[in-house]
Amino acid sequence: MNVDVLIVGQGICGTLLSWFLYKQNKSFIVIDHAAENSSSKVAAGIINPITGRRYVYTWMIEEVMPFALETYQNLGAHFNKQYIIPKSIIDFFPSAQMLDAFATRLTENDTFLHSFPDQNRFNQFFNYDFGCGEIRPAYIVNFPLLMAEWRKHLINTQCLKAEEFILNDLVVDKEQVRYRDITAQKIIMCDGIASLQNPWFQNLPFAPNKGEALIIECKELTREHIFKKGTMLVPLPEQHHYWVGSNYQWEFENDQPSERFYQQTVAHLKAWLKFPFEVLSHKAAIRPATLERRPFVGFHPQFPSIGILNGMGTKGSSLAPYFAHQLVQHLTGLSTIAAEADVQRFSRLLSK
Ligand SMILES: Cc1cc2nc3c(=O)[nH]c(=O)nc-3n(C[C@H](O)[C@H](O)[C@H](O)COP(=O)(O)OP(=O)(O)OC[C@H]3O[C@@H](n4cnc5c(N)ncnc54)[C@H](O)[C@@H]3O)c2cc1C
After folding, report:
1. Count of domains forming the chain
2. Are both 227 and 273 inside the same structural domain?
3. Residue 222 CA, ligand 1 centroid: distance in Å
4. According to DSSP H, which parts of 51-95 are helical?
5. Is the CB of 64 under 6 A from ligand 1?
6. Residue 178: which CATH number?
7. Are residues 168 and 111 located together in one domain of the fold?
8. First-to-last CA distance in the chain?
9. Strand 28-31 versus strand 2-8 pairing type
10. DSSP state string for 294-342
11. How far apart are CA 218 and CA 215, in angstroms?
């Protein structure tokens, strides 16, 4: 079988890359073994324009957020589903310092940060001593629904191989690659942290980062917003269900849920929420993050038939649409890849 592109992995990166190839009438096969604890399956899917304790803008947010919105809406229109919903973030300040930091940033720029005049609005639901502000616009992307629907489409169009990709069976030439009975002009690795074991890309400065989340049920809470007090509380499509997380572990022994996160998060929720809740499940995954917090996009400098779309870190829902599209535009000769994201910036490392 001959195709234009062979894609390894159908997390959010592989899903969006194959979507844009489909839109360009390119032929492709996706190989994915549906790992249960892939990063995309554990993520909350939040698009948050603000990052960190100093309330700075997320990298490239003014470009990537509108593009992400349009992409998920287009996908939604295609499948008659809603994959993205606007949901502003109510940020309960955990300390007087954070209240000050928010107030200072508010005076500098108010594109995404807003004061919330009705400070007592959430008193019946939450304990909060230092007030709250609002981050808007923000969105929730329903990764599980989107990836499941796209997978069905891939199966129906015979574009999916639901199996493990075995690196030893790959033969990479300058002009094309061969994988078992498939010949492709390009192979693009969208395999999340598995790329750390890939001989072509293992020298990239990945910085894998483990995160965990609880799924809880709470019958009395409001679903109007995403709520944040140190941790995020995100309404899920199922009634009364919320995603609660996360943490950022740079050192970890395995990819499994930990007792420590469970205990800490339950204690935090008991102090924060004014209503009882039940923990329904506990998940963990390793984010394909990078040392310089920029994605890895593009083709190997010495083996141009092998490419990568990876390293989305904590921002897969906003970065993946933009860079999947850019990679497809690059493939079709219509644009270049942003220098900060292009793996060509690591030419020396990749040539070792
Ligand atoms: C707890 C947590 C919360 C998060 N919350 C958010 C959030 O709110 N917003 C946000 O933007 N980001 C969030 N993220 C980050 C986000 O999940 C990632 O940026 C993104 O999902 C990475 O997607 P990916 O497609 O690169 O990798 P993955 O999701 O890991 O997908 C890789 C795919 O490749 C497949 N694969 C791997 N190896 C093979 C093989 N050998 N053969 C076949 N298939 C293979 C796997 O089965 C998987 O389907 C969160 C992450 C975590 C862990």
Report:
1. 2
2. yes
3. 29
4. 61-79
5. no
6. 3.50.50.60
7. no
8. 33
9. parallel
10. --EEEE-SS-TTEEEEE--TT-HHHHHHHHHHHHHHHHTTS-PPPTTTB
11. 10
| Residue range 78-125, pLDDT digits in tens | 999 999 999 999 999 999 999 999 999 998 867 999 999 999 999 999
- Residue 54 CA, chain-centre distance (Å), reads 22
Q: Does residue 37 fall inside a structural domain?
A: yes
Indicate whether 283 and 214 sit together in one domain: yes
Are 230 and 106 in a shared domain?
yes
List the one residue out of 283, 277, 267 whose CA is nearest residue 216. 277
- Long-range CB contacts (< 8 A, 24+ apart) of 116-124? 116/90, 122/90, 122/92, 122/222, 122/227, 124/274
- Provide the token pair at 322: 């933009």
The string of pLDDT tens digits covering residues 229-254 is 999 999 999 999 999 999 999 999 99
For a substitution probing ligand 1, which of 38, 83, 243 has the most ligand atoms within 8 Å of its CB? Answer: 38
DSSP states along 181-249: TEEEEEEEE--GGGGGG-TTTTTS-B--EEEEEEEEE-SS---SSEEEESEEEEE-SSTTEEEEE---B
Same domain, 129 and 214: yes
- For residues 35 and 167, membership in a common domain is answered with yes
Token pair belonging to 141: 């992307």
pTM score, whole prediction: 0.98
Alpha carbon of 43 to ligand 1 centroid (Å)? 8
Structural domain containing residue 342? 2-43+144-204+291-350
Instruction: Indicate if 200 and 304 belong to the same structural domain.
Output: yes
Question: 23-26: long-range contacts at Cβ-Cβ below 8 A with a sequence spacing of 24 or more?
Answer: 23/328, 24/328, 24/332, 26/328, 26/331, 26/332
Q: What is the chain's length?
A: 352
Looking from the CA of residue 166, the nearest atom of ligand 1 is 41
**What span, in angstroms and rounded, lies between the C-alpha atoms of 301 and 286?**
27
